[in-house]
């Protein structure tokens, strides 16, 4: 899963996806509020205010 919008095509719409075989849905479109979920697990996360801020990367793995 990704965070934010799809980057495969600039003017993408879900209805007319040009690359459905490689497109990955975002957590937000699946109803997962990313910042709340990360904070609830105990991680410190906040929006970056400048390019000099240190960025943190998070991933989500869903197994069945």
Key attributes of the depicted protein:
about 60 residues; 1 helix; little secondary structure
Secondary structure: elements and pairs:
Layout: H1 34-40
Descriptive notes:
With 64 residues, the chain is largely without helices or strands. It has one domain. It is built from one helix and no strands. It starts with 33 loop residues before the first helix and ends in a 24-residue tail after the last helix. The mean pLDDT is 81.
Care to give the gist of this entry?
With 64 residues, this protein is low in regular secondary structure. It has 1 helix and no strands. The chain has one domain.
Number of helices: 1
Oligomer: single chain
Sketch the topology as an H/E string, one letter per element: H
Over all CA atoms, what is the radius of gyration?
14 Å
- Give the structural class: little secondary structure
Structural domain count: 1
Terminus-to-terminus distance: 15 Å
Share of β-strand residues: under 5%
Low-pLDDT runs: none
Overall mean pLDDT stands at: 81
Secondary structure: helix percent: 10-25%
How many strands appear in the DSSP assignment? 0
Basic shape: globular
Q: Main sheet, how many strands, which sense, barrel? A: none
């Amino acid at each position: 899963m990704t965070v934010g919008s799809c980057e495969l095509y600039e003017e993408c719409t879900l209805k007319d996806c040009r690359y459905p075989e490689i497109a990955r849905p975002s957590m937000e479109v699946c109803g997962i509020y990313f910042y709340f979920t990360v904070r609830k697990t105990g991680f410190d996360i906040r929006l970056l205010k400048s390019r000099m801020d240190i960025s943190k990367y998070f991933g989500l793995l869903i197994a069945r």
